[in-house]
Amino acid sequence: MNNSDKSRQAIRRTIKKLAPAIVTALIATGLGLLSLYTSPVPMIQDFGKMLTIGMVVSLVAAILILLPIIFLRDSIFHKYDDKKKVRKTKNNNKFENVMKSIAVKTLKFKYIILAVAVLTAGIGIVLDQDVNVETDIETFMPQDTPELLDIQELRDIIGTTETLSIVFSDSDGIFTSENITWMIDMTNDLQAEFPEEVVGVKSLTAMLSLLSPAPLTPELVDQLIVNLPDEQLKMLINEDQTTGVIIVSIVDLEPEDTEAFIDDLGEFLDASGTDMDVTVTGQAVIDVEMITALTTGRYLITLVGMLLVFLGLLVIYRNPLKAIIPLIPISLIVGWSGGFMYIFGLEYTPLTATLGALIIGIGTEFTILIMERYFEEKEKREDNDEAIAVTIGKMGKPIIASALTTIGGFSALVISDFEILSNFGIMTLVNISLALLSTIIVMPAVLSIQNNVINKFKKNKPVEVKV
Description:
This protein is mainly α. The chain has 17 helices and 4 strands. The protein has a 4-stranded antiparallel sheet.
């Protein structure tokens, strides 16, 4: 058999052995990323779409580009490779032995390792509840950007650049006596009701009060409004005179304080007794809604991702145990990641909120490949722990190489001037490192314990005697 025939045979064997595991891992990764579509934040949905597209493109490139390149390499440079084959084999054996020894030591303390892993993950989940969520776009930018410095200087001069809009509407028109009285009262009472938050109120009645030294009344408003230019009127009411707006300038508040103020303002407006439809809107309201979406949505994304991966693996393997095993080591990372962010004072952003789905997608790829090889090795050996050690020895190198290349790719984000990208890069590196650690250390313990449980169940299962 010449070298080309050997290369063809090797490629066929590679596809035959690895294709099922890789396709399964690809499906699991895709299902994990599919959970990003459940997010109410459009940018997170788009991020999920791009990750899914990139994953499919990578698989196609590996089949149509990588394998032909490897075949050509073996065909052209086989003489040079033959001289280095012995040395490579020795190096591979050394690395395999190191990985095997790690697996053997891990299996000796498997119960302790799994208990510590679960405990620390649980603590991390509790601490994760106190991790702040950052949605202020100004914090995402380089802090020395001239445009950002200009707006900060403007804020120092005028006191605030934050506003809320109170939109009110009445299909019969807003210039009834009751509605005008409500506008006058709101303009006068808002700053008195919220002296620490409200620094100014701009409304139609506030503008008209500048034209008259006398206190405003509904009749006086009707007289003064005809003197206002249409351009100024359009800033505060629509052409049909059925909808108006009161612009409230507020101090720069923390997200929690902003949410509390909006709730209090809503209650104040509800108690005002107007029959008009009144809505509070503005950038501050959007920020609060985004914080809520990111805070509650990231847990939903993670849970949906795990459920989808489990159901997908259940359909593929038709075995609940095989469907749940790859998820156990990866689910722990969710808690570890939250604990890391809490300890080091990192905050969730629209990007880092996607890490749960991202790590489920990437991490299950590692654990599925380990599990597939483990069951293959188990068929060849009676000793379960030996099968696990051989699996880690054989698969350790490609999994570590895959993790390191992923880490290398995301490392570029760490040096970004944009803090949102830098933090995302840092947490991605941390999570991939944790996924690698969990795959190499926790996964062997899970495989060994599940085998012990199954064997114990089989021994205790009563044997039916047929008469």
